[in-house]
Structure formats: C-alpha cells, structure tokens
Amino acid sequence: MAEKFIAWGKIFESGVEEIDNEHKMLFHIANQFYDNIRRGDDDAVVFETLNKLIRYAETHFRREENMLVEIGYPEEKALRHKAHHQKLINQIFEVYETQFEVINDRIVDQPDKVKAFLTDWLIMHILTEDRDYFRHIEEQSLMSVEDANP
C-alpha cells in the first residue's frame, strides 16, 4: 500500500479492545480501497475491496449496536447511532457510483471524493458519534469501581 491516508492514533481509542481492533481493521480496509482507486486498479478489484469494506463495516456495526444494548446505552441514542450506521453504508455506495466525473468529454476518476468520504466516515464517526458511547462506557466503569469500593 503506497499511501496510507488514514492512520490509527490514540485519539480513536474507545477503551474496549475489541472495538478498537475492529476500528483498526476498518482503517486498514479503507486505506486499501482508497489505494485501489488512486492507482486505477481494475473495477473488479476495486469492487471486491468495497464489498470487503461494507461487509466488515456491517459486521462491526451489528457488534457495536449489540454492545450498546448490553452496556445500557440510552435507547434513543442507540437508535440514532444505528440509523447513522445505515446512512454510512448507503453513502459509500453513492460515493462509489459517483466517483467519476466527465471533464472535457473524458471520464475522470475522483479519488479525492472517495478519500474525503472515507475520512469523514471513519474519523468523524469515531470522534463524534462513537465518542459519546465511549464516555458512557467510561462512566459505567467508574460507577462499577465506586460500587465495589463503598
């Protein structure tokens, strides 16, 4: 992989190893997808990586949504989080389908469009949407410690 445009950092950590590992894998596959497009790989290769990204994201989203129920995350917030996940899956298809633009009667690939979406999808989703439940987990952990040490 020539260019890693999304790099994992401590800022993305949730405090839940399984979630962090899944987020790291999403970063890896997203980097692979962007690199396929940037290099102009065959459509079959690009689509295979896109499918891999979507399948992995759907699996991760289901796990994350189940975890939200298990940790007692407020139902309204959990439903909103689930809706956001579905919106992201729908948007990745739209971005893929519109990544090409006609300029001077030539079809031109727009890898920056994909890059911007993936950056927003992964980075902003984790730092805004997911960050809220990270705080919930932290608060639950603190309450458990306080309950254990009266």
Automatic annotation (TrEMBL):
Record carries keyword Iron: yes
Recorded superkingdom: Bacteria
InterPro entries: Hemerythrin (IPR050669), Hemerythrin-like (IPR012312), Hemerythrin-like_sf (IPR035938), Hemerythrin_metal-bd (IPR012827)
CDD domains attached to this UniProt entry: Hemerythrin
Coiled-coil ranges (or none): none
Keywords assigned by UniProt, alphabetized: Iron, Metal-binding
Similarity-based family: Belongs to the hemerythrin family.
PANTHER family: BACTERIOHEMERYTHRIN
Name under which the protein is recorded: Bacteriohemerythrin
Source lineage: Bacteria, Pseudomonadati, Pseudomonadota, Gammaproteobacteria, Vibrionales
